[in-house]
UniProtKB/TrEMBL annotation:
Protein family according to the UniProt entry: Belongs to the glutathione peroxidase family.
Entries under PROSITE patterns matching the protein: GLUTATHIONE_PEROXID_1, GLUTATHIONE_PEROXID_3
Protein's recorded name: Glutathione peroxidase
Keyword set, alphabetical order: Oxidoreductase, Peroxidase
Alphabetical list of InterPro entries matching this protein: Glutathione_peroxidase (IPR000889), GPX_AS (IPR029759), Thioredoxin-like_sf (IPR036249)
A Gene Ontology molecular function term of the record: peroxidase activity
Phylogenetic placement of the source organism: Bacteria, Bacillati, Actinomycetota, Actinomycetes, Micrococcales
Length: 167
C-alpha cells in the first residue's frame, strides 16, 4: 500500500527531503499560493502548526502556480513572503504542479481514490484550487480531504481526533 513515506520532495531552499521523516505524525498537506484570495489561510495553518506540533502534527506546504498564476515567485521569494507575511515556520516545499501530466507524484497519489482506515471512500478528483487540504494519519494514509474554502480553523477538530486516535 502506498503511503506518504513513499515520496520525497524538495524544500524551498533546494534541499531534498524524504517524506518518510513524517511517518509517526498526523500530517496536513496543503497546496498554497501567495497571491490568492485564500492566502490568509497561511495564518490559520501556522496557528495549527503552533497548537499541535508538539502533539504530533506536521503541516506541509506545497506552492503551486497552476491556478490563475497566483504563485509567480521564485522559491526564495515564496520563502520570504511566507516568513515575513505570515510567520510560517512549518515546512514549505519547492513549487510543484498538482494536476495534469506534470503533477508531482505525491499529488498524483493524493488526488487518487482512497479507502480510509475507517472504511470510508474518498473519490479521485483533481485539485480545484489553491489551499486544498489532505489529512493523513500517523502511518501516512489519507484519512480526509478538505476543499479550499474549508478554513484551517475548521480543521482543528479533525486534527485533534486524528491525533487522539493514534496517540
Amino acid at each position: 500500500m502506498t503511503t506518504l513515506g513513499d515520496f520525497s520532495a524538495t524544500t524551498l531552499d533546494g534541499s531534498p527531503t524524504d517524506l518518510s521523516a513524517h511517518l509517526g505524525k498526523v500530517v496536513l498537506v496543503v497546496n498554497t499560493a501567495s497571491q490568492c484570495g485564500l492566502t490568509p489561510q497561511y495564518e490559520g495553518l501556522q496557528a495549527l502548526h503552533e497548537a499541535y506540533a508538539e502533539q504530533g502534527l506536521a503541516v506541509l506546504g506545497f506552492p503551486c502556480d497552476q491556478f490563475g498564476h497566483q504563485e509567480p515567485g521564485t522559491e526564495s521569494e515564496i520563502a520570504t513572503f511566507c516568513s515575513t507575511g505570515y510567520g510560517v515556520t512549518f515546512p514549505m516545499h519547492a513549487k510543484i504542479e498538482v494536476n495534469g501530466e506534470g503533477a508531482d507524484p505525491l499529488y498524483q497519489w493524493l488526488t487518487g481514490a482512497h479507502e480510509t482506515p475507517a472504511g470510508e471512500h474518498i473519490e479521485a478528483a483533481d485539485i480545484p484550487w489553491n489551499f486544498t487540504k489532505f489529512l493523513l494519519d500517523r502511518e501516512g494514509r489519507v484519512i480526509a480531504r478538505f476543499e479550499p474554502t474549508v478554513t484551517p480553523e475548521e480543521l482543528a477538530e479533525p486534527i485533534r481526533e486524528a491525533l487522539a486516535a493514534q496517540a
